[in-house]
UniProtKB/TrEMBL annotation:
The modification 4-aspartylphosphate is found at D54. SUPFAM superfamilies: C-terminal effector domain of the bipartite response regulators, CheY-like. This is DNA-binding response regulator. Residues 141-206 form the HTH luxR-type domain. Gene3D superfamilies: 3.40.50.2300. GO terms for molecular function: DNA binding. PROSITE patterns: HTH_LUXR_1 (PS00622), HTH_LUXR_2 (PS50043), RESPONSE_REGULATORY (PS50110). GO terms for biological process: phosphorelay signal transduction system; regulation of DNA-templated transcription. Residues 3-119 form the Response regulatory domain. Keywords: DNA-binding, Phosphoprotein, Transcription, Transcription regulation. CDD domains: LuxR_C_like, REC_NarL-like.
């Protein structure tokens, strides 16, 4: 059972997401927070597996809350939920350690599926948004580490296309565990903290070309 904490300063949104996700047999919504400060307190108390986080909240916003959460032991994964795909706050949240983002207009089945993907170790990356992130917010990763193998480069390109581990495995005719190993090697060699940073590096350094399929 996946334990989910919802964070949004609009009570109607929290209530709606709670109602939608509570219908899923494998999701347990353990609470709802109205701002980032409350998220931190509730996460420490309730130990969720994942936080569905709005970025625009009073007091402590979702970006800072994500940064603090990801710095704690046994940190929950964070999925940002936002109204607009090109929300500037989303980029900061990704760099702060969020595992991806969803649009508030997404259908309940899409949200539930996305949360399951992240809980299993995947990342939700929208290629267009990450390209803009790469152009606007360079990140510091190692450029002098061990070179990526041809297969690791293939995996990085597919990560940049927004594919899940399962989709990458199917595309490359390997197991999901093999893909996870390749992803771990990519992060280690690039000195990247997360998949988002690795994908930004791919765009910045021409490993992935905008518009490439």
């Amino acid at each position: 059972m996946m334990r989910v904490l919802i964070a949004d300063d609009e009570e109607l949104t929290r209530t709606g997401l709670h109602a939608l996700l509570s219908r899923e047999p494998d999701i347990d919504v353990v609470g709802g927070a109205a701002d980032g400060a409350e998220v931190l307190v509730m996460a420490a108390e309730l130990k969720p597996d994942l936080v569905l986080m709005d970025v625009r909240m009073p007091e402590v916003d979702g970006i800072e809350a994500t940064r603090r959460l990801r710095g704690t032991p046994d940190a929950p994964k964070v999925v940002v939920i936002t109204t607009f795909e090109n929300d500037e706050y989303v980029y900061d949240a990704l760099l702060a350690g969020a595992s991806g983002f969803l649009l508030k207009r997404s259908r309940s089945a899409e949200i539930a599926h996305a949360l399951r993907l992240v809980a299993s170790g995947d990342t939700l990356l929208f290629p267009d948004a990450v390209r803009r992130l790469a152009a606007a917010r360079p990140v510091a990763v190692r450029a002098d580490g061990p070179p990526l193998t041809a297969r690791e480069t293939d995996v990085l390109r597919l990560m940049a296309a927004g594919l899940s581990n399962g989709d990458i495995a199917a595309r490359l005719y390997v197991t999901v565990e093999t893909v996870k190993t390749h992803v771990g090697n990519v992060l280690m060699k690039l000195g990247a903290d997360n998949r988002t940073q690795a994908v930004v590096f791919a765009y910045e350094n021409g490993v992935v070309v905008p518009g490439e399929r």
